[in-house]
């Protein structure tokens, strides 16, 4: 049985890297007594797959991990059991059984988009400049890989946005087909304003991650179903 878990990552836990988050959850599953499935072979490990990794220092209320289990209690029972063994800054919010048609995929391959709240730690974002920047038909940026540099257009990857009293709400394409990171977006914004990108100016808070089904974007947890008490 495949389970999808939605969890938060806030406070000082934002400084925990992705590999450390994986180790944290492996220990958390053992502490909480989750009947998790292990791989076979000489070095068995918990069957666990995370969605798009969160940037170091960023916070989130919409992180996901898929696990496989032999048996489970109800969704609420498992949420309570896991949260009793976890710290305040990583809390499980949803625990759902993955629907039949999505069992062969995982959270990472499902991700198509993500919502972010972007906050400026220094000078506030100017709505007029944001509107002019985000309304451009093309926003070319230079993307570096290990072997080369290439110019890409991130404008088609901005799927929606609106000003927020504290900053900017934006939905970005996220995944293997198209991927725009929020820090890439804001570096391009700073250059558009004629500024040199300022390190650590922005804080990124992920709100939700989505899968695409036909023409709709659906929160990853909505691809599963709640487990009722037996």
Annotate the secondary structure layout.
Elements: E1 2-9, H1 18-31, E2 48-50, E3 59-68, H2 75-84, E4 92-98, H3 107-110, E5 111-120, H4 127-134, E6 140-144, E7 149-153, E8 158-164, E9 167-173, H5 182-192, E10 202-213, E11 216-219, E12 224-226
Parallel strand pairs: 3-10
Antiparallel strand pairs: 1-3, 1-4, 2-3, 4-12, 5-9, 5-10, 6-7, 8-9, 10-11
Mean pLDDT: 92
Query: What profile does the largest beta sheet have?
Result: 10 strands, mixed
Oligomer: single chain
The tally of beta strands, per DSSP, is 12
Nearest-angstrom radius of gyration?
A: 19 Å
General form: elongated
Give the CA-CA distance, first to last residue: 16 Å
The fraction of residues in strands falls at: 35-45%
What's the helix-strand series? Answer: EHEEHEHEHEEEEHEEE
- Helix content range of the residues, please? 10-25%
Count of separate DSSP helical elements: 5
Low-confidence stretches are: none
Class inferred from helices and paired strands: alpha+beta
Question: Could you write a compact summary of the structure shown?
Answer:
With about 230 residues, this protein is α+β, with helices and mostly antiparallel strands. Helices cover about 20% and strands about 35% of the residues.
Commentary on this structure:
This protein is α+β, with helices and mostly antiparallel strands and 230 residues long. The chain is built from five helices and twelve strands. It has helices at residues 18-31, 75-84, 107-110, 127-134, 182-192; strands at residues 2-9, 48-50, 59-68, 92-98, 111-120, 140-144, 149-153, 158-164, 167-173, 202-213, 216-219, 224-226.
């Amino acid at each position: 049985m495949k389970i999808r878990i939605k969890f938060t990552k806030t406070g000082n836990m934002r400084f925990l890297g992705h590999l450390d988050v994986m180790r944290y959850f492996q220990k958390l599953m053992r502490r909480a007594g989750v009947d998790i499935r292990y791989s076979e072979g000489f070095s068995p490990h918990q069957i666990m797959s995370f969605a798009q990794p969160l940037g170091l220092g960023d916070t989130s209320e919409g992180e996901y991990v898929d696990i496989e289990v032999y048996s489970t209690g109800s969704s609420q029972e498992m949420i309570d059991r896991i949260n009793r063994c976890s710290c305040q800054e990583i809390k499980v919010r949803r625990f759902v059984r993955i629907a039949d048609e999505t069992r062969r995929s995982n959270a990472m391959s499902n991700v198509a988009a993500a919502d972010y709240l972007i906050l400026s730690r220094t000078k506030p974002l100017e709505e007029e400049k944001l509107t002019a920047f985000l309304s451009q038909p093309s926003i070319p940026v230079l993307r570096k890989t290990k072997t080369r540099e290439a110019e890409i257009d991130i404008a088609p990857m901005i799927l929606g946005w609106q000003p927020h009293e504290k900053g900017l709400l934006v939905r970005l394409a996220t995944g293997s087909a198209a991927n725009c990171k929020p820090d890439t977006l804001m570096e391009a914004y700073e250059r558009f304003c004629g500024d040199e990108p300022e390190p650590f100016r922005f804080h990124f808070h992920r709100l939700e991650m989505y899968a695409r089904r036909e023409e709709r974007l659906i929160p990853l947890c909505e691809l599963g179903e709640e487990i009722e008490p037996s």
